[in-house]
Specification:
Elements: H1 11-18, H2 27-40, E1 44-48, H3 54-61, E2 65-69, H4 83-94, E3 100-103, H5 107-112, E4 120-123, H6 129-135, E5 147-150, H7 157-169, E6 173-179, E7 182-187, H8 192-199, H9 202-216, H10 220-225
Parallel strand pairs: 1-2, 1-4, 2-3, 4-5
Antiparallel strand pairs: 5-7, 6-7
Keywords: Methyltransferase, Transferase
Enzyme class: transferase
Protein name: Class I SAM-dependent methyltransferase
Amino acid sequence: MPDPTQPVLDFEAAWRSAREVDGWLTEEQARVLHQAAGAVAPGRVVEIGSHLGRSTIVLAASGAAVAAVDPFPDDWRYGRPDTEQRFRRHLAAAGLSDRVELHVATSRAVREQWDAPVRMVYVDGKHDVWSCLDDLRWSRFLREGDTVLVHDAFSSLGVTLAVLRDTLLGRRHRYVGRTGSLARFVVGTPSASDRVRVLRELPWFARNLVFKVLLRLHARPLARLLGHTGSADPY
């Protein structure tokens, strides 16, 4: 179990450690995670998809207990055989190992055996439609009004389709807004305006798809001309 007596770090201190870890979480998104997790501390936050620990550090620094769930596959684009070891080293360097309970398994396998309270869920696992929809089922452990955060919600086709299906057809999550591609939901029955709000993000999603295509075509000058200054995909 994570140690609740570990010291809480303010966001600036947490980000100094987290930004040294490779990942796709922006500073603004990290601040949202830190604040949302801090609001439920010392309650438990479940993180689906930890990779090298950038987001895990921010979550754990808030004072919340973190259950990090990741099978650490080495057969995907950014996976390596030593990813888990690097993750553990980054947590140790940040002094937060004792606040994180690591589950080296798939999201579904852990969820099917889960029996503890959860106060927040952060989804950044596999980016296909069905995996993301399955990860969102973790919210069954949350209370009315609790937070679900989804990364790459409007920059990955699979995640965007999952978000649209869940918000437009589901009755569990209300879309609140986004910070970049980090979407925020609260547990509750969505209203018509909640459903419309997520549809209004589609032009921004289309913009991101255009930039991703341009980067795949090595057309960075054109991407810059259209407003994307980074070398990485928009997230």
